[in-house]
Design a protein that fits this description.
9% of the residues lie in helices and 38% in strands. By secondary structure, it is mainly beta.
Length: 190
């Protein structure tokens, strides 16, 4: 929709009698009723609500939790483990029902492996220069490089709280703003 403001886009939708013309804005998951994502996850993955261990990055058990469903990468509040430094969720290991916590620095991600990429451009020419990526819909544009053949994105500067399963969208600066080059799903982080 280019340079159209949201209000003008909604007016066009009204003129076309589209049902979504007056739909409220949302940055939440659209298929989650009343924003209660926990109930959806409990139904799809009941094991995510089972207790397990909270461990540090060396594997030492520091405590217990009531279900990995209550934790996200980068989370600081609600861990219920105190120490000399603030703890952050570094990793959630669903298979072992483990939540790995550590220092903020341990959240730094420099590279990500992408899968199921959908290219909206010529992948052999548009990725020869620096690009920008977003790993959160409301996040900032991150200066990066994409190795098309290895499907690896390298960030110019380390990024925090990036985790497998998130989307990664590629952008290229142009005269009128940024053009979407494509995107994929984060398979792994380094």
């Amino acid at each position: 929709l280019g340079d159209f403001p949201k209000s003008e886009t909604r007016n066009i939708a009204k003129k076309l009698n589209l049902e979504v013309a007056d739909k409220p804005d949302s940055q939440d998951i659209c298929f989650v009723p009343n924003g209660n994502y926990v109930s959806v996850i409990e139904r799809l993955r009941p094991e995510s609500n089972e207790p397990g261990n909270i461990v540090d990055t060396k594997g030492n058990i520091l405590g217990r939790h009531e279900g990995i469903i209550n934790f996200t990468i980068g989370q600081r509040k609600g861990i219920k483990i105190s120490g000399e430094i603030p703890y952050y969720v570094i990793k959630v290991n669903a298979k072992d029902k483990e939540v790995v916590i550590g220092k903020k620095e341990e959240l730094e991600i420099k590279r990500i492996k992408i899968e199921n990429i959908n290219y909206l451009c010529d992948k052999d020419s548009d990725f020869n220069e620096k690009i920008f990526v977003k790993v959160r819909s409301t996040g900032k544009l991150i200066e990066s490089k994409l190795n098309v053949h290895k499907k690896i994105v390298t960030f110019e500067n380390a990024e925090f709280g990036v985790s497998p399963g998130q989307a990664c969208v590629f952008y290229k600066p142009e005269k009128l703003g940024f053009r979407v080059l494509g995107g994929g799903w984060i398979k792994a982080t380094e």
